[in-house]
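Homework help board

Subject: predicted structure for assignment chain

Our instructor gave us this sequence and asked us to write out the predicted structure in token form, then describe one feature. I got the tokens but I'm not sure how to describe them. Can anyone check?
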Amino acid sequence: MKINKILVARDLSKESSRVIRYALELGCKFHAQVHVLHVMPTVDSSVLNMVALTMGADNLAKFNASNEAELAEKTREQLTAIIQEENELMECEIEHPPLVEVHHGDPAPMILAVADRLDVDMIVLGSHSKGALHYAFLGSVAEKILRKTNRAVTIVPPQVGR
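My token output:
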């Protein structure tokens, strides 16, 4: 089995660093390029419409553009810091520096689109373990990805790496 590219998709929760470390360790073992992805969810259109009525559509568009760019840059910086911290804790040395991407959108479709664009061999995701009720009514990003991809997917449970 050859794994050349790994995509790890994470939010900025406390578990993020553990899941990123897991992906980095896989990258070391397989000499693979690791891509770290964060997807910032978009605001619901009904909320945007209410705000646009108050501040005007043009003002809202300008506000969103500047804030999204600033938030994306701060997120990139946070992910880079997490990668550096986790890299220092690892025993093996990373052959390829991890690449960071930040996008806006619906997490599951965006993760799948980035995985396709990069042609990754494996997707690494964290599990939040929010309970049966959450999954029964809302579903999960991990579950959606598992149902819609033909790539290898590794789900890292909350207990791993503690």
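Reply (TA_rk): Your tokens look well-formed. For the description, you could write something like this. The radius of gyration is 17 Å. That's the kind of observation they're looking for.
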